[in-house]
Amino acid sequence: MNYRLVCRLLSIVCLIIGVTMIFSLPWAWPAIGHRTDENFQQFETRGFLGLVYSIILCIISWAILWRIGRKAQGELYRREAMAVVGLSWIVATVLGGMPYLLAGASGKLAVRLFDSHLLEPQVYGQDVAPLTPEEYALVQPLVMAGARGLSKERLQQEFLFRYHEITGDEAPPRSLGEVFDQLTELPHWHGALIAPGDEPDAPIDRALNYRIRPVAMNLADAMFESQSGFSTTGATVIANLEDPISMPHCILFWRSSTHFLGGLGIIVLFVVLLGQGSAGKALMRNEMPGPSKEGSHSRMQHTAWTFAALYCSLNLLLTLLLWLLGMNFFDAVCHAFGTLATGGFSTYNASLGHFYQVDPVSGVWIEYVVIVFMILAGSNFTLLYFLAIGQAHRLIKDIEWRYYMGIIFGVTIVVMAFGLVYDDFITDPETSAASEVSYALRYGLFQVVSIMTTTGYGTHDFDQWNSFGRGVLFLLMFVGGCAGSTGGGLKVIRHILFHKILFLQLEKSYHPTVVRPLRLGGKPVVDPDLQTNILVYFGIILVLFVFGWLAVVTLEPDVTWGSARQHTEHKLIDSATAVAATLNNVGPGLGIIGATQNYANFTWWTKFLFTALMMIGRLEIFAVLVLFVPGFWRSR
Question: Which letter does DSSP use for residue 559 in this model?
Answer without folding.
Answer: G
